[in-house]
Amino acid sequence: MEISRERCNDFTVITIIGEVDKTEEALLSEQIDEAFAADRPRLLFDLSSMDFIDSSGLRLLVQASSRAHRCGGTCALCCLNPVPRRIMRLTGLDAAFDVYPTLKDALAQRRAESLASVDLA
Question: Where in the numbering of this chain does the STAS domain appear (predicted)?
């Protein structure tokens, strides 16, 4: 598994390449922890190159989402391949995340939501 993390507008995009399983859990956990250095973390997981995810990886995604929301931030997924999409659907976790078809769609929608939430008073 390879992971990259980059800032894109106000978001931290975490791209996962390969398979997420117990043996790679520490690497993903470390990247997620580093993404929480922001005051209001806005996480977006790009899963376009992720081939598989096991229960340890699912747990990390759920924990990241919960942690982001507790900090006043957000967490979303984009570009799910068929196998991870099926796993998310079978576990019911697809309903727990905002899921976007492309990175561009995710960034545009999240940006629009962020602007809409700004108090203009």
Answer: 1-110
Domain membership flag for residue 121: no
What pLDDT digit, counting tens, does each position of 24-81 carry?
Answer: 999 999 999 999 986 678 999 999 999 999 999 999 999 999 999 999 899 999 999 9
> Cα angle vertex 52, ends 56, 49, to 5°?
120
Domain with 80 in it? 2-116
Report the number of distinct structural domains present in the chain.
1
CATH code of the domain covering residue 101:
3.30.750.24
